[in-house]
Amino acid sequence: EAVKKVVMPMLRKVKHVAILTELFAHDMLSNAIVPTMVAMHQAVKASGCAKITHIPEVIELHAAPLECRSEKLDGFDIRPFNAFRHSTSNEKADFWWWPVRLDNQPCVETAALGPPETICGFDFNRSTEISLSEHRRTLKLGVTKRGRCNAVALWWTARAGVVEFSTRPRCADGPAQQPKGGGGCEWKQAVHYLAGETAVFVGDTLECLVSITPCFTVRMMQQSPFSVQAPLWVEAPQLSKFSATLPILPYHFLMMTDLERLRLYRESIQFAVRKKQRELGRRVRVLDAGCGIGLLGMIAALEGTDVWLCEAVPMMRQMCRDVVA
What we know:
By secondary structure, the protein is an alpha+beta fold. The protein contains six helices and 17 strands. The protein has helices at 2-7, 33-46, 250-255, 259-280, 295-301, 314-324; strands spanning 16-20, 51-55, 58-70, 72-73, 76-77, 98-100, 108-112, 117-123, 135-142, 147-160, 163-166, 189-200, 205-212, 218-222, 228-229, 285-289, 306-310. The strands form five sheets. Strands 3, 6, 7, 8, 10, 11, 12 and 15 form an eight-stranded antiparallel β-sheet that branches.
């Protein structure tokens, strides 16, 4: 209603209006993109405008089964961190997917285990027919490659006339289509981690329950049996259809795949510790408050310091113990 109130008086005598958005979330549904486009269309049409052009005209959200795991980050073994990938969120959580660059992270191994399926799509030329209420459906993802599925990759495709743009990750195109020597798309895709890990073989079908809310986001829960359940210390709410919630934010996953960030921290910690050792003439004591999985504390320990790691979140604390061990 606020959009209509502002827009309609401005367009009383306009014959042709182009409605354009350059803002797209990683899952295409966040940030109220779809309802804003719909509201703009309704406001322009109500003003009596003869022609409306949408850029883009059509957007679609795609999904493919994915194996995604971390091995080492600048020499540190962070394989225990993969346990965090064994969790989706429940209906009370803030996030259901995590923004990740699937194409250009040397410390993350990703493999698409099957072809993509379209979860949903929106034709803005038919905005009056778009429902903004929640929809739930079963999504069946076929498997064409053997692996251990622990996630679903999400990306969007936008079309305006004959022009098409997509954030499709290169791992979805198969090894033959991927460039040699690393590198890749700088766009972030959305990754929806499942609440367990499933051994899949060619010909298998992965079933997920998908909840689509155009005014907010998309979330899903695997319906097929898991080969490996989430760790016992990842406690899932008993009364929710959407499984375990983790008290961590998307930037934790980004930090655990950001090699440049860790190298800058390493250089800074080494400089500060060595300087303090020269000043004091003895071993330096370091407190890492809010240590996460403990990487920065381990960098300080490698410089010969006495380190105390403190973490308030129980699950992160357990992860820190596993990584440090």
